[in-house]
Amino acid sequence: MGREEERAIEWECTRLITSFYGLLDEKRYQELAGLFAPDGVWVRLGKELVGGDAIEAAMAEREDWLTVHLVSNIRVDIIDADNAETTQY
């Protein structure tokens, strides 16, 4: 994999992370759930939420929350063309 392809993956992952937290803070939970693959997993508060239905159900519990996430120090570790791991604060 060349550096240009790595940059494209890093950029798309970064956009996905910022979109995720923006949708979360804007309470656009259906769109947030749509960011995940059908078998996608979000580990939230130590619990694995698998798939969009589980994510939307968990978000229904936080309807009265007000959050603003400031996301920084995004690191994307590319595993292969279809997989990456990220760390952010």
Explain what you see.
The protein is of the alpha+beta class and 89 residues long. 44% of the residues lie in helices and 21% in strands. A hairpin with a 2-residue loop joins strand 1 and strand 2.
Structural class based on helices, strands and sheet pairing: alpha+beta
Largest β sheet strand count, sense and barrel closure = 2 strands, antiparallel
**So what's the oligomer here?**
single chain
Mean pLDDT across residues: 93
Helical content (DSSP H or I, runs of 4+) = 40-55%
Give the uncertain stretches in residue-range form. Answer: none
Shape type: globular
Beta percentage is: 15-25%
Q: Kindly state the number of beta strands.
A: 4
The N- and C-terminal alpha carbons lie at a distance of 27 Å
Strand order of the largest sheet: 1-2
Count of discrete alpha- or pi-helical segments spanning 4 or more residues: 3
Computed Rg: 14 Å
Helix and strand run? HHEEHEE
Question: Would you spell out the secondary-structure blueprint of this structure?
Answer:
Layout: H1 3-25, H2 29-34, E1 41-44, E2 47-50, H3 51-60, E3 75-80, E4 83-87
Antiparallel strand pairs: 1-2, 3-4
